Amino acid sequence: MKPIQVGLLGIGTVGSGVFNVLQRNQDEISRRAGRGIEITMVADLDVARAKAVVGDGIQVVNDARAIIANPDIDIVIELIGGYGIARALVLEAIAAGKHVVTANKALLAVHGTEIFAAASAKGVMVAFEAAVAGGIPIIKALREGLTANRIQWIAGIINGTTNFILSEMRDKGLDFDVVLKEAQRLGYAEADPTFDIEGVDAAHKVTLMSAIAFGIPVQFDKAYVEGITKLGAADIRYAEQLGYRIKLLGITKRAEKGVELRVHPSLVPTKRLIANVEGAMNAVVVQGDAVGTTLYYGKGAGSEPTASAVIADLVDIARLHTADPEHRVPHLAFQPQTLSDAMDALPVLPMSEVVTSYYLRLRVADQAGVLAKVTGLLAEAGVSIDAVLQREADEVGGEGSTQTDLIILTHDTREGTMDAVIAQMQALPTVLAPITRIRKEELN
Questions:
Q1: Residue 249 lies in domain
Q2: pLDDT tens digit string along 5-15?
Q3: Which of 54, 242, 243, 267 is most buried as measured by Cβ atoms within 10 A of its Cβ?
């Protein structure tokens, strides 16, 4: 059978990995796909660099639209990134009848509804395994392997940069700013790390997983997003003393009134496997009603791990290239006509309606009655306390210190209730600094 022909838009870190792995494992990939898969055309603004990667025999151009216009190209791989030109090119490729493979989680989290609708109307596939957790096949697991299950919740460490920073803060007792500079020096963090450290990258990924898990449209604009920039070494140390580790989690959960969709630092019990995922590694826990708890672990980024996921998508498309579009696995696992109805039945809940438990740290005056006043406000609001830890003043501020840290763990409480009681506690004259609030996830 004639090899399927692929055009590659962008041949940077991931693109070069795709080319190299496809070349290296061509025989094995062909045996699995049932036909050859060949990159025959590459578009990159730096033509000389691209030619140095692919060598002779492959056409290199500086205009991505030349690939889209080529009638011999069956699949377009988009590895440009971002929302702008990438969106236009993906939609143009679909309109031209090309299948699309992309690692662009930002594009799909924001414009996925439009892109998937266009692909369905044209009878082509948009595959995006590489968009979430790099080389971990979590999209395929959710969309196919767990299809018998009613998914209850997903919690994932899905950004390697922030996990590396939190691991270093815990191991070395350093504050965020110091570790961020080291992460940038080592290449784990970008020069502008905003998308990573503010939780945006993780929110893009959990938005896609939420849509697949619950059969709802992608709704990134409704996600609650909080990063790690306000975490201090003290909180990581106190969490450890209480039997927890702090991880930036992407969480989506089926609740009584809808779906939770949130990214924020979380205290996770040290005994949970996901709490022990260190460095730049990723992990996703999925809870299904039939299968129970499943864990997916591996490299969430990098040239060849991400290439592994891109090529898996190429093989899927090669197998299904001539199949009836009505009998392919839907982009978001559920049949497209059911998604809008599900959005009404399972709305994304505002953060104020989310119920979880909390870690609170208050810097307070070291004097009698402070603890009673704070716990009294919590009791009045109906917030049940799980544990209280009060540090010695000398330990917090040195010998002769007149202030100390008060750490409180609560039982499950509605976020809106906790917002109100924190405002009341913050107004107390004996509370000397902004209160730190970190959500706690037992992941039972």
A1: 139-299+344-351
A2: 999 999 999 99
A3: 267
